[in-house]
Amino acid sequence: MDADVIVIGSGMGGATLAAALAPTGRRILVIERGERLPDSAEARDPAAIFRLGHFRPKETWLDAGGRPFNPGNYAFVGGNTKFYGAVLLRYRAEDFRPLRHMGGITPGWPIGYEVLEPFYSAAEQLYRVRGDATGDPTEPPRSAAYPFPPVPDEPDIAGLRRAFAAQGLHPSCLPLGVDLERWLARGPTTWDAFPDTTGAKSDAESCALAEALRHPNVTLLTGTRVDRLLAEGRRVTGVQVTGPQGAATLRAGTVCLSAGAVMTAALLLASGNGDHPAGLANRSDQVGRNFMNHNLTAMIAVNPLRRNRSVYEKTIQFNDWYLTGGPQGEPLGNVQMLGRVTGPILAGESGLPLWLADYLAERSIHIMAMSEDLPDPQSRVMLRNGKIVLDWKKTNTGAHDLLVRRLKTAMRRAGWPFVLSKGFPKSKPSHQCGTARMGADPARSVVDADLKAHDLDNLYIADASVLPTSAAVNPSLTIAALSLRLGRHLAAQAA
Length: 495
Ligand SMILES: Cc1cc2nc3c(=O)[nH]c(=O)nc-3n(C[C@H](O)[C@H](O)[C@H](O)COP(=O)(O)OP(=O)(O)OC[C@H]3O[C@@H](n4cnc5c(N)ncnc54)[C@H](O)[C@@H]3O)c2cc1C
Description:
This protein is an alpha+beta fold and 495 residues long. It contains 11 helices and 20 strands. It has helices spanning 12-21, 46-51, 113-126, 155-166, 180-186, 204-212, 261-270, 343-350, 354-362, 397-413, 476-494, and strands at 3-8, 28-31, 61-62, 68-69, 99-101, 104-106, 172-173, 218-221, 225-232, 235-243, 246-250, 252-257, 295-302, 316-318, 334-337, 364-371, 380-384, 387-391, 418-423, 459-461. The strands form 6 sheets. Strands 7-14-15-16-13-19 form a 6-stranded antiparallel beta sheet. The chain has a 5-stranded parallel beta sheet with strand order 8-2-1-12-20, covered by helices on one side. Strand 17 and strand 18 (387-391) form a beta hairpin. The model has no long low-confidence stretch (mean pLDDT 97). Bound molecules: flavin-adenine dinucleotide (FAD). Flavin-adenine dinucleotide (FAD) binds at residues 8-14, 31-34, 73, 75, 79-81, 83-87, 192-193, 204, 225-226, 258-261, 263, 267, 430-431, 463-464, 474-476, 479.
């Protein structure tokens, strides 16, 4: 055996699991296809990031029509968290129960919020979250306060907070995993979508993996891609990898898959054999199905007579329409600051000439509407001739359109009269989840409530793919909490 536990992927799910398992003394091998992200001039160069896609992996997936695209996901040690906005929000307690949305009814989770709550608190400690739990009417009960006070509003954002409050809305602090002073020391930019090359963001590498690697029983293998899982009957017997040393098969008693929602599904589908003809862990035919990714719209709210002096912006949210707001009281979603959009970022994202992008960016404020995408079996990840096909069928768009309209009105009332908006493209599935969902019924889900594959005795999944619903909050803290819970489960099993 090469290890007691193999963890595939060092992103939010995998690194957090490794941190949870490290103190057990078991030999943990984390296999990551990417390398560590070095610091470079491009790390704070918006043209390199937003126009040239400097950090994107050189790979293509196919859309439903067979058209190739370069996905807006990243493959470095730490996974997508190296680029994330570091918003570390809990799902609301109501998200764990069946909920009626404008686009349909979401299923409940096999566990309630109260089961995950202690792990949310532990995840907030591990990821050094800065926040303030007061002020948001949808905030779920918590057993511990945030470990650090919130990141301060800049003056123009404090003004927006007051303007929202004057409308009867309830703006509150975004819980964030960022050490502001350290981040700004490297350059005056926001952090969302910028790579973390100095450890200033609380990402999976700088927090969880660093913690795991303090233990001599944890090993990280970088630049090593898992191509296939090998299985006999109900046991995974090894993982086939390609790395700097060429091809090899690595073996461990327990295998945990944490490659991200698209890659985890693709790996399972690629690993079919005589015992598992439709792909591994796929007796239910659910692997790859129920793909979700929030409905997201970015807004640039312009006032030609006002300057926005902010550097990072990303400190407030409101959830007044999170649980209600639809024609029959259905949920609409979350509103949160986008992160400072500058001229070069806007030019890179929109193709506008730089002079116009500069003019608009300097006179605008930047915010985002996020609505729940509901599980739909036809929304799926597939493999066609070894290539990944992402057929994302958006759901619940009526609720999102209504949220966008409401937010535009709120922005106008707040003193930003011209509101431009753009939906996030399907080629950037940054909040992807749901492709190997958790459930009690083996006919309708891929893993059980302990994240063990229904069809296999030693395969676990710990990443965004297990989420049964996408809710309307950023996914990472929930992924981390689930990994910590799985870590405790596996540790108890081994004891
Ligand atoms: C620009 C951006 C902003 C975001 N902002 C936020 C935010 O503010 N808050 C939030 O909660 N979420 C945010 N997200 C989403 C968040 O990053 C993801 O939800 C989270 O990282 C998912 O965790 P994961 O473990 O499922 O996958 P990942 O973190 O992506 O980790 C998967 C890992 O597996 C590796 N891997 C994949 N295939 C293989 C293979 N075959 N062999 C070996 N290794 C493999 C990958 O390289 C990667 O390191 C953002 C994402 C992006 C892109």
